[in-house]
Design a protein that fits this description.
6 helices; Dihydrodipicolinate Reductase, domain 2; alpha/beta; Rossmann fold; 243 residues; single chain
Amino acid sequence: MDILLVGYGAMNKRVASLAEEKGHRIAGVVTPDASADHYPVFSGFNENLPAVDVVIDFSHPVLTTALLESNISAPLVIATTGEKEQLAVLMQEKAQTQPVFFSANMSYGVHILTEIIKYATPLLETFDIEMIEKHHNQKVDAPSGTLVKLYDAIVESAKPNATPVYDRHEVSEKRDSKDIGISSIRGGTIVGEHEVIYAGHDEVISIKHTAQSKDIFASGALTVAEALQTKPQGYYTYHNLGE
């Protein structure tokens, strides 16, 4: 595949490296930064971009919005987090003319974790739920897009009246049964860890996913990109990509 990268942070650097190992070609990088190693750099989508087989976007909402509002017609793999509601509308519109895949986390293991959460939450309806996510000290958004994805799975499966609680120190009162505590930890080079804790009477169940390298996300993006080559226009996630 000929690939256009949107953004050139740590994730797309890994995508570029793994793509070349697999025999793919990086045709260019759209980034406001001055350079992207030895690849052609484009500052925006109004430039004369190369024809490509797929676009892989690990960037930020501003750049992703510009991508979705551009006339690029290649399949899109989008892994940007933040401003979920606004981007979802644009992705649905773009999907009317080409394949568009989105996941807040490109790890297949996180997809399976989400399915486990959907199954477990109705069975543990009387348990208190707490959520913890950990990432490296360079991550900007909090909570992570993946934790938001897991929270949504809890709400949709069994907790429609849940109340997310981010700052318990602001009030002095006991926990309400509808509360779901959300904690974000930032430090060092932690790649990513997401844990959902179900606390009942005298027993606790913890479900956790730990990413040990960024390669799982880069590999996941390339696998999805390959799959999109045979797909018609439409909006795809891990739930329907294999259909």
